[in-house]
Automatic annotation (TrEMBL):
This is ATP phosphoribosyltransferase. Pathway: Amino-acid biosynthesis; L-histidine biosynthesis; L-histidine from 5-phospho-alpha-D-ribose 1-diphosphate: step 1/9. The gene is hisG. It comes from Calothrix parietina FACHB-288. Signal peptide: none annotated. Gene3D superfamilies: Periplasmic binding protein-like II. Residues 52-207 form the ATP phosphoribosyltransferase catalytic domain. InterPro entries: ATP_PRibTrfase_cat, ATP_PRibTrfase_CS, ATP_PRibTrfase_HisG, ATP_PRibTrfase_HisG_short. PANTHER family: ATP PHOSPHORIBOSYLTRANSFERASE, ATP PHOSPHORIBOSYLTRANSFERASE ATP-PRTASE.
Amino acid sequence: MLTVALPKGELLKNSIRLLQAVGLDFSAFLDSGNRQLQIVDASGKAKGLLVRGQDVPVYVEYGQAQIGIIGYDVLREKQPQVAHLVDLHFGGCRMSVAVKASSPYKSPLDLPAHGRVASKYVNCAREYFQSLDLPVEIVPLYGSVELGPITGMSEAIVDIVSTGRTLKENGLVEITTLYESTARLIAHPLSYRLNTGNLHQLVEDMRSHVLSAVS
Ligand code: PRP
């Protein structure tokens, strides 16, 4: 039986909708009373695992799930050994550098050398500032990174912006965008190569559904 790793949070609803469109029903994960982390879909064809977004590639990399759905931001940060199969065209957001609206920094190059940048995406942040040749200290955080500049702990943040509401309501502004991100379908490379559980058909069904939805 195929196993699908599904991300908790923002991407869950659209992920479940897409899987429903190809005949796999994991909608029980959306029930507010549900506490089960593993369910078999109604047809008995596949199993779903409900995991933290950052853990989706881990289950896929180790082969406990043959496919998974995750944001490109996580793939870029963690660089897991998984096959990147389909851009699913939902969960659109961008990775940006943001500062306090009242700060004098209008571009990343205005930030002071040896200043601090708070982020959940430390690899991405480090790589970006290295590419600018600007030596900054990256401060790793697990969430609510907007508090970095608000409290004065850091001059800037590198974080995901979706609607922009969180930045606005916390008095921050973007000064540059590093890249755009959407949800992606990933697979365990060997399972995909061996077509375990007729994986190719499922992937093609998902690809066709996504293409018909965007065209
Ligand atoms: C993400 C991100 C921003 C927010 C952006 O946080 O880190 O804080 O969403 O969304 P917006 O532009 O639509 O306001 P998340 O909800 O994952 O919470 P966290 O900060 O606790 O990780």
